[in-house]
Amino acid sequence: MRMKTLILIACLFTAATAHAVELANYESYNGFTCNSVPQLPANETHPSLWFSAENAAAMRSKKDQDEQASRLWKQVVESEYLTMDLLPVPSANDEKNPIHQYYGFMSMIAKYSGFMIWMTDDAADKQKWIDRTTASLQRAYDGPIYLFDPKSKGGPTDEIYLGSWLQNYVSAYDWVQPYLTAEQDHAIRQRLIKQADWMGRNIYHWTPRPHNHLSKPAWGLGSAALALCEEKDAYSWLGVALAAGNDNTRYFFSADGIYREGSQYMVFSWVNFLPFMIHYNNVSGVNQFDEFQPLMEWGVGVRNGNGWLPNIEDSFIRPFPAHMAASMYKNSPTFLHSSAPLAEVMMWAWNTTDMKPFDAAVQKTGFNYTGASWDYTLPLDEYLTYDPSIKSTPPDVSPTIFLDGGQSMFRNAWTTSNPSGRYLLFQGVAEADNHQHAEHLSFIISAENQMMACDAGYSRKSYGEKIRTEWYNQAEAHNVVTLNGKAPVDVAENVTPVSRYRINTSFFDFEEKEAPYPDGGTLRRAIAFPGESYFVVADIISSPVAAKATAMLHGGRATMEGDGAYRVWNYENDDYGSAARMHAWTFGSADDFKIENAEGELSYIKGDYGVYPYTKATGTGTDQVILQVLYPSAEGKEGPKVSSVRNGNQVAVTVQDGNTTDVFVLQPAAAPAAFESLETDATFAWIRKENGRVSKVAVREATTLKANGTIFLQSDKPQTGARER
Angle at Cα 31 formed by Cα 26 and Cα 36, nearest 5°? Predict the structure, then answer.
């Protein structure tokens, strides 16, 4: 019988996928999947989703084990959902928000109250929570919920909410079930079964594409199947959940953990996939955390100097809630550390995250960082998952990380909230078909405890705003190079832009990425990290015909001054960091090269948007180069002395800072180039002089390099690398 059910699931899945493939190829990306064969126990045990009856005392005593657990416990017991009255049932004619809040709040009332049943030994208190949980579950999904079509996007019962409501309700049921009468149990189960059956039959109808609108309700459905595993349709519910979850992870996640819808939608999905994975492990003994380990490592590796996930694609900045999954990786080796388990690295990541902007946002708006404030029990889930026994251990690998999925993080240290810290994210991930921005080969910078060169972000407040598509997801809102107004694109669907020439040393890091333009031509953009103290962006723009290249440089939430090749952005002490400066010099090889000032919106946190200055460096030609020197400094500190010399389409730039002088050469193709004491045929070259003596060099595609009369490279074949004397 179960085999027939599984076959039916596969048929439904195949039909839905065939429809989806008309929109995009959802099978050819290099994401990951989990075992799709449902595993359910023969009999239900309650509670079991979050913890067993035997482990309830340990869950209760956790609150006394450290300061963080005590803080989370305080948030749980002081939650408004433990004291608010049960809400009146809305009508279908009510406004969207009251209907949404009704279903979200009622489900959270049930979950908080159910949890408290197991957190007290006092008989009167326990009965109070039993009664409150039962009363809320007896009203689960009453009102007009089935009158609305979740396929109508933006409605009060959008499918993105359904997964959280169902996970809240089945958690509450799991906790209260041992105390229910047979009549109560039957009535409540019928409500939950009706919802699960409705979702299981319609998930692919609501959302044929495999983005978060498919996976979020699916993970909620999976939790329901586990809580109600004795039901005849539980196996098929779980089968649908696993299939839909795999559709999402196969296409939107890279093999090394990057989520292509952006950080915000990763966290938005986290609120559903993490509970499901915990429930599946606890109820059926199925561990999906191994498959999700690259995501956990990505979350650590991509964090900026304040511990925040980037606002790339449709995203505001986000913290990475690593502490909530760390306990599942106590015995997991990781490339991030030579000996410590991933759990300790994840706990370090959370404990060193600066929560200031997110705490400020909660105070100002009432919304937390999950994107699901009306649906998700964040403090409770934090308490349920947090393990005080895990110590914090920072990574001990090189802080510069190159991911094959297309993101590269240049940094000089793992320490966070450190003024001397430097961080640049180089973005080159194959585009997906949801929440994508025209930001190929863009970059963002944080340094001096401040966000500097930036991505414009998601939008002002929400997805539906016109300005999101008129500005925020357009090329000019990002640090990209356009050709005749168009940003680079993928060479083919689901194919990551080429990354090459990776260098990672203690004194110089480097990488080049390449992507084509839609109307012909290519961009070869390289990031250099000389001395691991500032950044150089080296662009080679090639076009079959003369075309206008424009390099955008967004400096973030700052004032800007300067002229000619030089600009400086001045940052104030704010929710996003300390007062600081970013000095920038931009040089180009085109005869008509120029730099113009402009203004555009950006937002880091929902609702906190504004208009800030940026520059557009332009030049026309078939083969041209643009080189930017980006030098972070403390507030009020002057930058180095920077100058440039051009010879045709060759550009040489000198950066002098005290007794240290850096010289860079950039040209579109290998050819002899001579600038003062430097001779090379490299497409990119760097030499560092300390007290007049050449101490370090690096080249890309060079057969020769001579500086100050010393030959550093002579080869029959082009070489790329770095060395020090």
Answer: 85
